[in-house]
Amino acid sequence: MGDHDTPMICRFQDGDRQCIQRAIVHYEYCIRHILLDETAPYKRCQGITKSNSDEDTSVRCTNPIHINRPENLCSTHLILLGRRTRRN
Ligand SMILES: [Zn+2]
Ligand SMILES: [Zn+2]
């Protein structure tokens, strides 16, 4: 009873740490880790995230984007770059 609505938990593990995010429906990873599944219809954001440390290092954004989207930037980067367009 009720098996169908048991939430799937992301299977990502980093050492002892298990991700506790809910997995995307039909996949084994959550939205943060979905890029680990090569069969999932997501691509990686091409944006750069500045790290908060003193070192001048830039880190590639790891946000996933659904492949149906024409942009190669996540919504955060689209807003940052002022390229977000509304279609409603
Ligand atoms: Zn996860
Ligand atoms: Zn991004």
Relevant terms:
88 residues; two-stranded antiparallel ribbon; binds zinc ion; 1 helix; mainly beta
SSE string: EEEEEEH
Number of strands: 6
Measured distance between first and last alpha carbons:
41 Å
Largest sheet: 2 strands, antiparallel
Radius of gyration: 16 Å
Low-confidence stretches: none
- Taken as a percent bin, the fraction of beta residues is 15-25%
Taken from the alpha-carbon principal axes, the silhouette is globular
**Largest beta sheet: what is the strand line-up?**
1-2
Q: Structural class, from secondary structure content?
A: mainly beta
User: Helical element count?
Assistant: 1
Small ligands present: zinc ion
Percent helix: under 10%
Average pLDDT number? 86
Keywords: Nucleus
InterPro entries: Znf_KANL2-like (IPR025927)
Domain KANL2-like probable zinc-finger: 11-77
Organism: Steinernema hermaphroditum
Explain this structure to me?
The chain is mainly beta and 88 residues long. Helix content is 7%, strand content 18%. The strands form three sheets. Strands 1-2 form a two-stranded antiparallel sheet. The protein has a two-stranded antiparallel ribbon with strand order 3-6. It has a two-stranded antiparallel ribbon with strand order 4-5. The chain starts with 12 loop residues before the first strand and ends in an 8-residue tail after the last helix. Bound molecules: zinc ion (2 copies). The site of one zinc ion has 8 residues, from loops. One zinc ion (ZN) binds at residues 10, 12, 19, 21, 29-30, 32-33.
